[in-house]
Amino acid sequence: MTVSGVVFLDKPLGWTSRRAVNEVIRIFSEAGKKRVKAGHAGTLDPLATGMLPILLGDATRFSELGLNADKRYTVTFDLSYQTDTLDCEGEVIARFENMVDRQALMDVLSLFQGKQQQIPPIYSAIRVDGKRAHAMARKGESVVLKARDICIHKLELLSFDFPYVSLDVLCSKGTYIRSLARDIGEKLDMGGCVTALRRTSTGGWSESMLVTEDCLKEAKQQAVLPLRQWLRDFPSCELNKDDAWRFLNGQRIQLEQKTEGTVAVICNELLLGTGELKPGMHRMVLHPLRILPSSQHLFTSKGE
After folding, report:
1. What is the value of pTM for the model shown?
2. What is the DSSP-derived secondary structure letter of residue 192?
3. What DSSP string runs through 121-182?
4. Catalytic residues
5. Distance between CA atoms of 142 and 138, rounded to whole angstroms?
6. pLDDT, tens digit (0-9, with 9 covering 90-100), for 30-41
7. In the chain, how many H helices and how many E strands?
């Protein structure tokens, strides 16, 4: 049976996101058969642990639901120094002897709530003229990154034991926690070097969904979230077998539906893909958006 769904891997410390995907592919692939297709929905640095959604099979077509989603992190950073990478794996470029108290920190934290612009770290995967910024930086090349719009929905101080600050951060896509720590430190005329980082949620999915590599090896099928649940924000659009066949062949279908927008298209509990309901001349019209190859194959093999 073709695997399709999402694994919420608890990424270990030191792993790259690419290594995490490769490990999951290895676990789900069978010897002598075609390798399972997989990809992740939001990069985590090697220093970071926590939620890395890894999409399998047809689910890879919906990675943007993770990439574009809000993220939640717990982070600890050190105000007494800064590195070139903005985390403890880099080279120290500055040290700071002064101190700050809790109230000064709280006053600065209040400045980082809501919409703002943020400059990403130069040691990041952002492309500059077709090159990765981190690759350019490691070669000593000049890297200039533009500020981007982000939003910090929540910023809660978990602990403060100078020089260490620990925060709970809920933020929009595109937010770099290393940059946030840097900017907070700069407002205090200090450093802001990340020493620990953990992603606790992507798109509102609970930390309780996380599975370790060992648990995945022991019970891999039970660890896969079905694709329909990954598409939980899309209402269902039920089709009969004739209309399902037409949908899988890319045809538009007139329906009696009253609502419009993106929907998950279903037939007899089988997810066929997604579509867009738009007003037609007399009825709503379902326009295919993404059709699942596995469902096409299933209908063909059964002669539906």
Report:
1. 0.91
2. -
3. PSSSS-EETTEEHHHHHHTT-------EEEEEEEEEEEEEETTEEEEEEEE-TT--HHHHHH
4. 45
5. 10
6. 888 889 999 999
7. 9, 18
